[in-house]
Design a protein that fits this description.
alpha/beta
Length: 221
């Protein structure tokens, strides 16, 4: 049985607790504070030492961004939009359903699908780290791993959604689901109006990564 988070549940720990000190002898202290710059600095150092091949690294990143990426999740969502029997099976037990489509493996062993409706909007967070369904959505965005998102998504989900440009009706409830090492969630966004005549490829273009996390909506055609 999977239950959405209660806002009070996050109160047991506070990710914003300050560190008492910084160890400037730690080698990490020599790296830039911005995550993107740290990654670039490490990549440069490892390349100069001949430990990595930039072309091979680019190929791996491309694989996760375009092949093991949001297009996989979009394919699942669109099939759920088009096929009611598939949608029901997906909501009942997503793991074997998406595995039958070829989406399985590390970070995707136990999948749960939750469906947005006019009454309920679903949103996913990992409050302890950054558990994320890689086979369906690719690499997690930086903000998903941030302390701010992990804390605020539970405490003030509507405010967080508003910062993503998502403004929900007051009578539409928000449910926040906590991903763990055992369970990862896929949000099935609502199908936009006026899309009945679109084919699969066109529908997939409407499904964004953020809409499958719940911090966005499917695009309108």
């Amino acid at each position: 049985m999977h239950s959405p988070l209660d806002a009070a549940a996050i109160g047991r720990h506070d990710p914003f607790m300050p560190h008492d000190h910084h160890d400037h002898d730690d080698p990490h202290a020599l790296l830039p504070p911005e995550p993107a710059l740290r990654v670039k600095a490490l990549e440069t150092i490892l390349t100069q030492k001949g430990l990595i091949d930039p072309l091979a690294l680019d190929a791996i990143i491309d694989t996760y961004e375009t092949k093991i990426g949001p297009r996989n999740g979009a394919r699942v969502v669109v099939r759920a939009w088009q096929d009611d029997a598939f949608r029901r099976a997906l909501l009942e037990d997503a793991t074997p359903v998406v595995a039958d489509m070829g989406f399985f493996g590390r970070q995707g062993e136990h999948m749960v699908a939750v469906e947005n409706t006019p009454q309920v909007h679903n949103m996913v967070v990992c409050t302890l780290c950054s558990c994320y369904p890689w086979p369906l959505l690719g690499l997690p965005p930086g903000w998903y791993k941030s302390d701010a998102y992990r804390a605020r998504a539970v405490r003030e989900p509507r405010a967080v959604l508003a910062e993503f440009g998502v403004h929900l009706p007051a009578d539409q409830a928000v449910r926040v689901w906590d991903s763990t090492a055992e369970i990862r969630y896929l949000v099935i966004p609502q199908r936009p109006a006026g899309t009945q005549g679109l084919d699969t490829a066109a529908l997939m273009d409407l499904v964004t990564r953020d809409s499958m996390i719940g911090t966005g909506l499917a695009r309108t055609p």
